[in-house]
Description:
Chain A has a single domain, classed as ABC transporter involved in vitamin B12 uptake, BtuC. Chain A has 12 helices and 2 strands. Helix content of chain B is 34%, strand content 17%. Chain B contains 13 helices and 13 strands. Chain B has a 7-stranded mixed beta sheet with strand order 8-7-9-10-11-12-13, with helices on both faces. In chain B, strands 1, 2, 3, 4, 5 and 6 form a 6-stranded mixed beta sheet that branches. In chain B, helix 1 packs across helix 11 and helix 2 packs parallel to helix 3. Chain B starts with 63 loop residues before the first strand and ends in an 11-residue tail after the last helix. Chains A and B meet through helix 1, helix 4 and helix 9 of A and strand 2, helix 7, helix 8, helix 9 and helix 11 of B.
Amino acid sequence: MPSWQNFQPFIVTGLALGGVYALSGVGLVVLYQATGVVYLALGAVGAMGALITYSLISGGMAHWLAWLVCLAFSGAVTLAYGMIFGPLLAKRDPLVKATATLGLLLVLFGAMDLLWTTSGGAVRSLTFPTDGHGFSLGHVTINWTQVIGLGVGVAITAGTAAFLRFTKLGTAMRALANDREITATLGVPVRRVEAAAWLGCGILAGIAGLLLADMVALDATTLTFLVISSLAAALIARLRSVTLTFGAALLVGLVQNMLVPIPALTSYSNMAPFVLAAVALLLLSRRRVIGLSREEA
Amino acid sequence: MYGRGAHARPFVALIAAVGIATLVGCGSSGKPASTSSGGTGGNGAVKTSDCGTKPGVKATGTPIALGTIVTNQPGVNFTDIPYMAQAYFNCVNDNGGINGHPIKYTILTEQTNPAQIAADAQQLVQTDQVLGIVGNTSIIECSVDSSYWQQHGYYIIDSGIAPECYSTSNSAAVNMGPRYSSDGAVQYALSQGVSKIVFDQANVPGTDHIAAGPAALAGNKNVPIVQLTENVPVTSADSVAIKEVNDAGPNGAVILNFTPPDALVILKAAQSLGLADKVKLWGCSTPCNTDFLAAGLGAQWNSKLFVNAELTPPDTTNSPTMKLYQDILTQYGSSGPNKVSGGVGSFSQMGFTEAEIAVHALESIKGAYTVASVNAAFKGVTNFDTGMLCQKWSYGGYSSHLPNNVDYTVTPNNGKMAVAQGCTQVSSVDPDIAAYRQQAGVAPLDPTANG
C-alpha cells in the first residue's frame, strides 16, 4: 500500500476530474428535472464541440473564439434535439426518452469518426494556456487547469443551485419536476422552460468537453463515454440534487484516481463509477423499503 | 499494433512500423532500376512512371487478383495501409503492369469480429479467387486466419499486430509489431545507463507476450523492471503519469507501449504536471513515431522522449525510393474513395513497402500466375532492398518470421521526429528474436538506410 504522501498527487487529480464530472452531472440532473430525459448524448456533444474547437484553432482562429464556438455548438445541438424530439417523446416512458438520446449519440459518434479520422497515426490534443503553470503544495505539483476544473465545478454547482432556488425560471423547472401537468395548467410556459434546460445542459456539455479534452484526451470515444462517470454521480444523487451530484462526482473522481497507485486495484479503477453508483442505489433503495415497511407497520 | 483491446483502439497503434522496399536498383526484380533513375540517386529524377516496366503503357492483360483484410472500425482504422498499396498497384497498372497484367486488388474491412474475419478470408479465396494476400493489417486477423492460409497455401505479406503474424510459417510482416518494437525502446533506454525501467502498456490481450521481451532485455542487464498495464482508453492520464514517474525514480526510464492517442495523453499529463524531467528518459514503441505526436508535445520533449522507429524516417531521407513513395502518394493516393488520409507516415510507408515487395515477387514469375506460383514467389523473396527499412527484407521458409529486426530510434525535434540513433540490431536476448536469427541469420543492411 502506498504511503499517504504517495496518495497526495492522486487526490489532486481526482478532485480536478471530479469537478469536471460534476459539471456534466449537474447538467444531467437539471435536464432530468425539467424534462424527464436522461441525456446520454451529453458526452458525445461535448466531444464534437471540442473537436470542432481543435480544428478551428488549428486553422488559426483565436482560442477564446474557438471555445465560444464549442459552447454555441453544444448548446445549439442539444437545444435542437430537445425542441424537435422533446415534445414527441414527452409522454413516453423515461427509459424510451433516455434510449432516444442514444440515437443522437450514435449519429454524432459516427460523424466524428468520419470527420476526424484516426487513420495514419493521427493524434490530436487541446491545450489551455494554464496547463504549463501552477504551484506546489507540499510534495504535490498542481497546475492551474486542475484548479479551474474543480473551481468551475464548484461555481456551476453553486450557481445552478441558486438559480433553481431563487429565480422564476428555476422555480418553474422544479415545478415541472414535481408535476408537469399541474405546472402547465398554472400557466408556466413549459416549452420555454424545457428549452432553457436543454440549452443550459448543452452549454455545460460544451464546457465539460473542453476541460476533459485537455485533462483527459481529445478523443471521440473517450469523451463520449466519460459521461458514464457523470451519470454515476447523478444516479448517486438520484437525479434530484445538484449539491449531492457535486459531492458524488468528487467522490467518483477521488476513488477512481486513488485506486491507481494501489497495484492490486489499479486495473479496476475504471469500475469505480459503476461500483459507487450500484452501492449507492442499493443502499438508498434498502432505506426506502425499510421506511415504507415502518410506515405500514 | 498495440492497442486498445476490446475497445478497439488499442491496437491502432500497432503500427509498429515498417519498412519498405525500393524496386529500384535491386537487381533481381527484373524491373528497371526505377528509383535509381538519374544515375546519381538524386531524388529529383524519380517519376511515378518508374514504378512499372513500361512507362505510360496501361496494362490490359488478364488481371492478377490480390486481396487484403484490414480493420476499420470507430477508433481503429488501418485502411491507409491497403489504400497506399492500392495506389502503388494503380501506378504499376498505368505503367505496364506485371508483364502486361494489371493487378486487381480487393480490400475487405472488418470490425474485430472473428466470424467476419474468417468469412472475409473465404470470400477472398473462394469468391474473389485472389492469388495472393498483401497488406493485411488487423487486430486479430493473424490469430483467426493463420491456419486457413496455411491450409490453402497462401504466404501473407502484412503489417503485424497479433503474435501469430510473427510466430507462424505463413505470415511475414514488414513491421516489428508491439513486442519487438518495445524491445527496441527498452534497449535504447538501457544503453543510456538507466537504473530502472518502468514498462507500461495497454491492458489488452497479449500483454504477457509483449512484456516478456522487455523483461528479458532488462534482466540481462540486471536492471529492475516494473511491468504495468492500463485500461484503455486512458481516462486518468495524470494519475498514470504520476504512478510511472514514482515507480521509475530520477535515474529510471518510463517506456510506453500504447496507441498514439493514449501515449500522447500520458506524456501531456506528465508535461503539465512537471514530471517530464523527473526521470532520466521516456521511451515509446513505434506507434509514437508520428509527427502528430511530436507536434502535440512541443520542444520540451526534444531529446527527452526516444521512440523506436521501424521505418526509415521520410522527412529526413532523400533517397529515390522515398521520392517515389511520396510521388505515388501524391498522384495516386491523395484523392478518391481510397484516399490515403494520413498522408506521409508509417501507415502509408507500410502499404508502399508491402506492395513493392509483392510487385518485386510477381515480376520474378516466369510462367502462369497461379496461387502456387504467386505464393512461391512471395515466399522466395530474399534480401530485397526496400529502401524503407534498415535491413534487406526476406520471407523464407521459416517457422517464424521477423524480417524487420534492425531499427532506428527517433526523438521529437521541434514538431518533427528526427533520428537519434541510426540502424541498430534489436537484441537477441529476446528469445523470439534469437530463434528467428538462428533460422534466418541477420540480413544485410539496406544500402539506403541510415546506419
